[in-house]
Amino acid sequence: MLADADREQDMDTGATRRPDASDRDLIDRAIAGDAGAFDALIERYGDRLDRFVRSRVADRDAEDVLQDVLVAIWRGIPALRWERPRSFAAWAFSVARNRVADHHRRASRWASHADAEPEPEAVEFESSTLAAQTATRWLAALPFRQRRVLELRVLAGLSTDEVAAATGISLPMVKTLQHRGLMRLRHALDDRAA
Fold first, then answer.
1. Which end is more exposed in the chain, N or C (fewer Cβ atoms within 10 Å of the end residue's Cβ)?
2. How far apart are CA 58 and CA 113, in angstroms?
3. Each residue of 110-163: pLDDT tens digit?
4. Gyration radius of the chain's alpha carbons
5. d(C-alpha 107, C-alpha 56), whole Å
């Protein structure tokens, strides 16, 4: 029987589920220093981390920033604990978000703001493909909290539970911010089409 601390409630369906046992096993092994387990985690989440980083930084810098993210995850994984249900993805994306912010702080010292603009990359956005630069421009018009939630949900592909864990925002507020942000984008697109 699972202890309450080992259960999560999926707020979209209301079902109670156990966190991905294979993730937990891989994390436990990675904490113990098993590089193969870490490689398996990165194989599982690397594409989403890559898309997230590429949506936030210029293409020429994306590989370096992604490398910084992976090194930070490797160094930080020993501190990751399963004291309460929290997904590896949520933690990894908070690391990625912090490394992207570090990159922009460093870049602002040496380059103009125009150099920090991301180059176009295809991203899935509301059932149609837009360039990441276009999606980023539309998202930039949103208030900060709505933008942050939608970036993690849409560009990074995190679940609402993972976004809540990564941002420290309550799950109901994540859903509210997502809904309001999508409605704001929909109105902006409708106004543009009219």
1. N
2. 11
3. 554 444 444 444 444 433 344 555 677 778 888 988 988 888 887 777 888 888
4. 18
5. 13
- 6-52 confidence digits (pLDDT tens): 444 443 434 334 445 578 888 888 888 888 999 999 898 999 899 88
Q: Once rounded to an integer, what is the mean pLDDT over residues 62-67?
A: 90
- The answer to whether 54 touches 43, Cβ cutoff 8 Å, is no
DSSP secondary structure string for all residues of 105-125? HHHHHHS-GGGGSPPP-EEEE
For the whole model, what pTM was predicted?
0.56
Spatial separation of the C-alpha atoms in residues 93 and 107, rounded to whole Å: 21
Instruction: Give which of 3, 13, 26 is closest to 84, Cα–Cα.
Output: 3
- Tell me: the pLDDT tens digits for 108-122? 765 544 444 444 444
Burial environment of residue 79 by CB neighbours within 10 A (0 to 12, 13 to 18, 19 or more)? exposed
CB 138 within 8 A of CB 55: no
Which of 129, 148, 130 has its CA nearest to residue 139? 148
